[in-house]
């Protein structure tokens, strides 16, 4: 399979190695300064860039009739525009805040726990995410997805980085050293706490998941999620 890498930073480089190990060919490594030359020859594009470049990268892929897997976070305010463009161009699209198998299992656990905890007013939910100091966005896309998972399965209606008011989930975003990504969901009462936590040891899981998603998406038309790729309910 021919892959266009849109973004060739920390993630782009791990994705390149895993894609080559799985027998794929890289036809474009797009960074801030070069062009999209080669994009139209790709079977699939993988965007792991920066929040300000994601919309251009995803649009360029749809315009070149190349399905795109996007892992870039911090551009959610343009999500509906990209869905509209995908539909207009009859494109293929998977966007996820986190492509790792472990985090996608964790998403399911989080939703299940939220449903149970919604019956018990004495517990209050908070979240914490810890990432490396180079990260541009806060909170992480994964923390936003976790908050959405709680909101869709409980009476909570919003998340905030500030002090939480009633119905809000407080997210604390910490930036420490080279931490690849740690997410904790905590339910606290006066009596006890229940905590679930996912710790990434490195970037392998994110990158492998993105390559598996790209293999799955190539040749398909439509808007999909990692639940489709991993066959999770
Ligand atoms: N969904 C998931 O599973 C995961 C998502 N992420 C997200 O992926 C993104 C990338 O992360 P990471 O690799 O660590 O970040 P890096 O900062 O290491 O890499 C970003 C890359 O994007 C490039 N870039 C800048 N402008 C453009 C542009 N206009 N077109 C194409 N590329 C451009 C940069 O190029 P240059 O070097 O020239 O500046 C750089 O190579 C982040 O949003 C992060 O949150 C990260 C891990 C997992
Ligand atoms: O920037 C990162 O590194 C990561 N970003 C994603 C996010 O914002 O959730 C996923 C992962 O946690 C690493």
Automatic annotation (TrEMBL):
Dihydrodipicolinate reductase N-terminal domain mapped to chain residues:
1-99
What is the main EC category here?
oxidoreductase
Q: Which positions does UniProt annotate for NADP(+) binding?
A: 30
What is catalysed by this protein?
Answer: (S)-2,3,4,5-tetrahydrodipicolinate + NADP(+) + H2O = (2S,4S)-4-hydroxy-2,3,4,5-tetrahydrodipicolinate + NADPH + H(+); (S)-2,3,4,5-tetrahydrodipicolinate + NAD(+) + H2O = (2S,4S)-4-hydroxy-2,3,4,5-tetrahydrodipicolinate + NADH + H(+)
* Signal peptide region: none
Tell me a GO biological process for this protein. diaminopimelate biosynthetic process
Keyword flag Amino-acid biosynthesis? yes
Q: Which pathway is recorded for this entry?
A: Amino-acid biosynthesis; L-lysine biosynthesis via DAP pathway; (S)-tetrahydrodipicolinate from L-aspartate: step 4/4
> Which GO MF terms does the UniProt record name?
4-hydroxy-tetrahydrodipicolinate reductase; NAD binding; NADP binding; oxidoreductase activity, acting on CH or CH2 groups, NAD or NADP as acceptor
Q: Which family is it part of?
A: Belongs to the DapB family.
Subunit composition?
A: Homotetramer.
Q: What is the name listed in the Swiss-Prot or TrEMBL entry for this protein?
A: 4-hydroxy-tetrahydrodipicolinate reductase
Name of the coding gene: dapB
């Amino acid at each position: 399979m021919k892959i266009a890498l849109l973004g060739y930073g920390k993630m782009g480089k791990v994705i390149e190695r895993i894609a080559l190990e799985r027998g794929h060919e890289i036809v474009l490594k797009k960074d801030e300064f070069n062009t999209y030359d080669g994009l139209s020859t790709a079977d699939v594009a993988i965007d792991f860039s920066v929040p300000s470049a994601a919309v251009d990268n995803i649009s360029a892929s749809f315009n070149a009739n190349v399905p795109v897997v996007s892992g870039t976070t911090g551009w959610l305010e343009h999500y509906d525009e990209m869905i509209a463009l995908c539909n207009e161009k009859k494109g293929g699209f998977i966007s996820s805040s986190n492509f790792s198998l472990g985090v996608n299992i964790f998403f399911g656990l989080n939703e299940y726990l939220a449903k149970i905890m919604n019956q018990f007013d004495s517990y209050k939910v908070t979240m914490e995410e810890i990432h490396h100091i180079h990260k541009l966005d806060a909170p992480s896309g994964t923390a936003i997805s976790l908050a959405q998972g709680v909101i869709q399965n409980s009476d909570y209606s919003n998340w905030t980085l500030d002090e939480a008011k009633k119905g809000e989930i407080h997210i604390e975003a910490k930036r420490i050293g080279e931490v690849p990504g740690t997410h904790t969901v905590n339910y606290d009462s006066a009596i006890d706490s229940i905590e679930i936590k996912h710790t990434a040891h490195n970037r392998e899981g994110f990158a492998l998941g993105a390559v598996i998603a790209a293999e799955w998406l190539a040749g398909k038309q439509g808007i999909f999620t990692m639940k489709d790729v991993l066959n999770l309910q």
